[in-house]
Amino acid sequence: MADIIELLRERLGEASVTLADEIESRHMSDWHVPAEPGTKPVALVRPRTPQEVSAVLAACTETRTPVVPQGGLTGLVGGATAIDGAVLLSLDRMREILELDATAGTITVEAGVPLQAIQEAADAVDLLYPLDIGSRGSCLIGGNVATNAGGNRVLRYGMTRDLVLGMEVVLADGTIVTTLNKMLKNNVGYDLKQFFIGSEGTLGVVTKVVLRLFPKPRSTATALCAFDDFDNVYAFLRRMRAGLADTMSSFEVMWPSFFEAALDKGNHRRPFAGQHAAYVLLEMMGTDPEQDGEHFEAVIGSAIEAGEVSDVVLAQSIGEADRFWAIRDMSGELDGALAPLVAFDISIETGRIAAFLDECERRCRERWSSARMYNFGHLADSNIHMFVTVEERPFPEHEIEQVIYECTQDWGGSISAEIGIGLLKRPYLAYSRSEAEIALMRRVKSALDPLNILNPTKVFEPLDIKLAAE
């Protein structure tokens, strides 16, 4: 390994290269998936420019050394987790906001800029960068792009894929491909950026991105609604889509098990006197502060008159809206408080989600009578999150995964709605992708990374990667 170390020091300087024994433990894993015991990377490098990223990848190509790109290390499936013998390529020094064009409604940034910094830069000129996730202060935009991050506003603004206009990416051999397009319309040949968005660092390393900005909302209205029948949730969603149109920014559903656990573990004040079959956190973001609130109340009022909503609390202040969101955002705390559990990020067509969850629960309880499910998520985006726990020990993590992912496959759903595949979901890729799709993915991987140095072992099973590299 001396050759790769010498090359890296020569091209980046010693200060940008950290040897294996000195690498901080936080670089060994992402937020959720630890490295295999005994894993020892050869070095951590922290380039400052795209040219230095290019130099790193060229050196790794010359020496056949694998590379693991890293951002804020907030991922949940092991996409940035270290592997043995690899160079860890951290982009956290590339933190410059290069341009904000208020007329075009774009911001051009380096890959190491935190999401929150982009939000704040847009806000300072009365614009909005709409991507928002809980790790906003520590996740980096390059990681958001590499994982095609979703979040709470997908309903209105789309996934990260829908927010990227252009990018600069470095290929496995060190070639820098710059397509920093700022135009909404650019129909010249292939849309190359789409190869890399959501590719989890397996096809190239993103170094710069051009992002779309939007008019900053002038008003926000929030309501917490309770339902005694889940069919009424679907009716309410249809009514809100028609009545609020594209001002509806969030439609978050919580099932009773999640809602009660969130109230209990978070010591939150109970918003309703009794218990209900489902709860919806509804948010509208508008442009008319004088009329939006009245319209919001009127549309919800029509749902009450139709018998769809059993009870509702309208937020009277930002603080009260924040308290509603705090209940929904208890998912991180519950992940720890209810452990051991298995967390799922599933997509099923919206109108079948409730029935799908009933089937998942039935199958789990056939295997484990103690099975409990805590369900919540972005119903209008067809995305549901599930925590599944059982009392049996040793905890049957992989068996639970098998049950839920088999059910997802049977129902034609996706095993990953917004957090990617990485290491954690790699064994189940074929549950949501056909043989033909996986073969095509391997061909793309082989074309862009023929030596298989970019984030190997991620997304594909090892056998599949070997076949792709041959």
From TrEMBL:
PANTHER family: D-2-HYDROXYGLUTARATE DEHYDROGENASE, MITOCHONDRIAL (PTHR43716:SF1)
Domain FAD-binding PCMH-type: 37-216
Keywords on record: FAD, Flavoprotein, Oxidoreductase, Plasmid
The family this protein is said to belong to: Belongs to the FAD-binding oxidoreductase/transferase type 4 family.
Source organism of the structure: Rhizorhabdus wittichii (strain DSM 6014 / CCUG 31198 / JCM 15750 / NBRC 105917 / EY 4224 / RW1)
Protein name: FAD linked oxidase domain protein
CC cofactor: FAD
GO biological process: respiratory electron transport chain
